[in-house]
């Protein structure tokens, strides 16, 4: 069971906007630690998508955005494209001195 | 250009010790703020954070696996080694190493391709 909670799946039609939530606790997200997001395409290693709650690495389209509030964070994807179909994971740091991941969310583009 | 590559046995028997090596290039593990972490992913399941070694040789482990894990670094060889004792079939997973930023935040910006380890007799 993952420390951070994500919905198992979300879906949307091309062009639509979807959001993926990530809920933690007072020992991780709520303690002020940053949230980061990774995209994992089938059969590949995870790729950093958002770091420091809302920052995009070079090369990541601005269709992807992140936010954080309290003990939760969200990833938003606008203008959904077929190539966005992947698994998405949130990650943070925990007061127990370890990295923690969410259980992952499978995004299906209808 | 930062690259990492994991290497190790694809198959281990239950109770054996697994040794994985992460060989990297494009950065130095003696640079302040840099770490190398290990993350695993059982087939069809979520990512699980395992361990991290900091540039100053400080180390962090998953509390649930701490008694079985050891992470070490060899800065001169640009390698990080993870050992996991008493392997069990539930440890079957793809194991990734990753360059991790640890100053001000804690995230992995470069990942290896992963290596699949199967635990079976």
Structure description:
The complex is a heterodimer of chains A (110) and B (121). Chain A is an all-beta fold and 110 residues long. Chain A contains no helices and 9 strands. In chain A, a hairpin with a 6-residue loop joins strand 3 and strand 4 (47-50). Chain B contains no helices and 11 strands. Chain B is globular. Chain B starts with a strand and ends with a strand. The model of chain B has no long low-confidence stretch (mean pLDDT 96). The A-B interface holds A 2, 33-34, 36, 38, 45-48, 51-52, 57, 89, 91-93, 96-104 and B 37, 39, 46-49, 52, 60-63, 96, 101, 104-109, 111-114.
Shape of chain A: globular
> What characterizes the major β-sheet of chain A?
6 strands, mixed
The protein's oligomeric status is heterodimer
Poorly predicted sequence stretches spanning 5 or more consecutive residues of chain B: none
Quick overview:
Chain A has 110 residues and is an all-beta fold.
Layout of helices and strands:
The complex is a heterodimer of chains A (110) and B (121).
Chain A: E1 9-12, E2 18-23, E3 36-40, E4 47-50, E5 64-69, E6 72-77, E7 86-94, E8 98-101, E9 105-109
Parallel strand pairs in A: 1-9
Antiparallel strand pairs in A: 2-6, 3-4, 3-7, 5-6, 7-8, 7-9
Chain B: E1 3-7, E2 11-12, E3 18-25, E4 34-41, E5 48-54, E6 59-61, E7 69-74, E8 79-84, E9 93-101, E10 107-111, E11 115-119
Parallel strand pairs in B: 2-11
Antiparallel strand pairs in B: 1-3, 3-8, 4-5, 4-9, 5-6, 7-8, 9-10, 9-11
